[in-house]
Specification:
Pfam families: HATPase_c_2. This protein has 164 residues and is of the alpha+beta class. It contains 4 helices and 6 strands, in the order βααββααβββ.
Amino acid sequence: MPATVTKRPAVLWEHRTYPGDLSQLSRVRADLATDLAGFDPDLVDTLQLATSELFANSCKYTRAEPPFKEVIRALSMPDPATLRVSLSDCGGGGGVPRIPTERTDLEWDWAECQRGLVLVENLSAAWGHFRLAPWADLGTHVWAEFAVDPASAPPDLRPYVFTR
């Protein structure tokens, strides 16, 4: 059987780690704006909105009381036309990201939960998730991809970007 070669992302930003608490949301958004300096401002705004929703979900499904567990944010460009943001929670909530489809109109009017994933689905080119360890509740990794015009990406991007 031939060996499979995994291609390294065209650009990989250093991961950022946050306490799994909603009070960190402004920091998450600010760090994303810093890391994406030079990209189209509309794209940055879109990523901030989608990342805010994913971060809020990660906080919901990680430890809810101090000391908060961590949420890890990853950012990469697997190819020149795609920007991928992903968040990994530390588990403990037992939830699996999904867009509910079995609600009645009245239930949708009342519900506040899981609408963020509808937003992420509509803003992104693709999104998905996987369990960090299928045999245990060690967390969930959720990602979303966004189209980038390669001509509008900053010309000085390096294969690995340090964030601190």
